[in-house]
Amino acid sequence: MANSGSSRHRLLDRVPDSFLLIMLTIGVTACSGRNEAGGGGVQLIQINPGHFHAGLVQKTMYEGIDPGVHVYAPAGPDLDDFLLRIDGYNSRAEHPTGWSMTVYRGPDYLERMLAEMDGNVLITAGNNARKTEYIHQAVSAGLNVLADKPMVIMPEAFPLLEETFAIAGENGVLLYDIMTERFEITNLLQREFSMIPILFGTLEPGSPEDPAITKESVHHLFKYVSGNPLVRPGWFFDIGQEGTGLADVGTHLVDLIQWECFPGEIIDHESEIEVLSARGWTTDLELEQFTRVTGLSEFPGYLDTFIEEGRLRYPCNGTMTYRIRGVSARVSVTWAFEAPEGTGDTHYSIMCGTGCNLVIRQGAEEGYRPTLYIETRRGGDDFEAIIELALQERITPTWPGVEAIRLSDGVWRVEIPDEYRIGHEAHFGQVMERYLEYLEAGALPDWEVPNMIAKYHTTTTAVGMIGDR
Q: Per CATH, the architecture of 182-466 is what?
C-alpha cells in the first residue's frame, strides 16, 4: 500500500499460514484540527472493501463511532485502493478524518474476522459474489451489518437472505442496507408532495403499458469520485460478481417506489408483488475503453463468455415491469461508458396521481441537475393556490426556501435552494447517521425489514426472468 506520509494507518499484515503478526505504523498521529468525533460504543469492521462506497462510509467522522476500524480482506488492488481513499480523507486539508485502520490481509479473511470479532458493526461494500454469505455469517455470529446494495444478486441466493433477516431478529442485531437515494432532495420532495391529498390526490393504478410510476437511471462506467477518476476492478464487469444493472442500481429504484408510494407501510412480497416482464441488453466496450476504466491491459479470463469479436458485451442493462399492491411500476437501468462533459449520472421519475403528476427530470434543459416538476391533471385556476397551501403547510416548515415557479399552464418547477443539494457522496454519511439512531434505539422501523425482503424479491425475480443476457 502506498504511504502518503500524512494519515495514521496501522497496517496489520498477518501471514495466514503461520499467523505471524507484522506491525507497520504508517504516518503520524493525529494532528491538531483533525476531526476527532467518535469514541463511542460502535466499532466498525470492513470486509473485503472492493467498492468505492466502502470508503465513502468513512468520508466523515461520527459521534458514537470509535475511530479504530478493523479491515479483513485478501491482499490486492481492491484493498489498496480502499486504504488509499481513507488515507486521502485523513490527510485532506479541510475537515480531515481521524480513522486508524488495522488491516488483516489473507485468503482466510472471513474466517479470521469471525474468529476475532474486533467490532460490532460490519460494513460490506465490494464484490457481490459472496456478499450474501458475508452477511449471513456475520449476523449468525451476532454482528450488526450495514450493507451496501445489493445484498443479493441472484435469485437462488434470495432464500438465504430471507433466512438471514430471520436470524438477525432472533439475535437482536440490525441488518440494514445503504439507501442513499432516500436522502436526495428531489426524491424527498417527490415523496412529500405525493403525501398531500389535496394536491396529488391518490396514486393511479396505471397499467403495464402505461405505469403509474416509472423510474429510470443512467449510470456511467467512467466517472470521477472525490475528485479523482474512478478505477473499477475487472470483476465489476462480471455479472456473477457484480450483478446486473437491475440487481445493483435497480435496488435503489425499487426501494424508492416502495418508500414513496407506500410510506411507512409493510409490503408482503408473496401476495402484493408480481413481476410481469423483464429484459436485458448489453453495453459494448472496446479493449481501450475497458483499460481506461480498469487499468487492465486485457480482458480477464472470467469475462470470456462475454467477449465477441474482441469487444466486451457487458450485459448490465435492464428494464422490468411489475405490479405492487395493484399499482403498475416500471424500472429501467442503463450503463453508458462516459457522460458528456459537465454531466453525470441521470435520473428520471414520474408518479401519476389523480390530481397531478410529480416528475423528476435531469436532462439538458435542467442543466443535468435533478429537477422536480408538478404537472396538474385538473382544470381551473385554483391549482396554484393549492400548491401554495401545500408549500406553506407541509414543505417549507421542513425545507425553508423551497418554492414553486409557474412555467406554463398546468406546469410548475420546484425551486430548491442549493443548501439542500449536498451531493451523492454526502448521502452516505446521512445513511450512517440514521443507522446509528436505529442502533441506539435497538430496532429498525417495523416496515424496514419486510420491505427490504420485498425489494430483493422483486429485483432477483426480474434477474431470473432475464437469465445471463
A: 2-Layer Sandwich (3.30)
- Cell numbers of 5, please? 506520509
Contact 128, 148 (CB under 8 A): no
Are 245 and 215 contacting, i.e. CB atoms less than 8 angstroms apart?
Answer: no
* Burial track 269-279 (b if 16+ CB lie within 10 A, e otherwise): beebbebeebe
The residues near 418 (Cβ < 8 Å, ≥ 6 apart) are none
d(CA 161, CA 131): 10
What average pLDDT does range 382-410 have in this prediction?
A: 94
Grid cell digits, residue 462:
426480474
Return the exposure string of 155-182: e unless at least 16 CB atoms fall within 10 Å of the residue's CB, then b.
bebbeebeebbebbeeeebbbbbbbbbb
Other CB atoms within 10 A of residue 212 CB: 23
Half-sphere exposure of 286 (CA within 13 A, CB side): 3
pTM of this structure? 0.89
As a whole number of angstroms, the distance between CA 337 and CA 282 comes to 12
Q: Which grid cell sits at 223?
A: 466517472
Contact 20, 14 (CB under 8 A): yes
Q: For 273, phi and psi rounded to 5 degrees?
A: -130, 135
Which residue carries 412480497 as its cell?
269
Instruction: State which H helix or E strand residue 399 sits in.
Output: none
pLDDT at 267: 98
The one-letter amino acid code at 229 reads: P
Topology annotation, domain 9-126: Rossmann fold (3.40.50)
Q: β-strands 175-177, 144-147: how paired? A: parallel
322 Ramachandran zone, left/alpha/beta (phi>0; psi -120 to 50): beta
User: Which of 78, 122, 110 has the alpha carbon at shortest distance from 235?
Assistant: 78
Which is it for the CA torsion 270, 273, 276, 277, positive or negative? negative
Q: Say if CB 238 and CB 50 are below 8 A apart.
A: no
What is the distance, to the nearest Å, from the Cα of residue 3 to the centroid of all Cα atoms in its chain?
A: 29
Q: For residue 39, name the pLDDT band (cuts at 50, 70, 90).
A: low
Torsion on CA atoms 73, 77, 78, 84, rounded to nearest 10: 100
Domain limits, the chain = 9-126, 182-466
Give the number of residues written for the chain. Answer: 469
- 138-176 confidence digits (pLDDT tens): 999 999 999 999 999 999 999 999 999 999 999 999 999
Which of 36-50, 218-232, 316-330 holds the top average pLDDT? 316-330
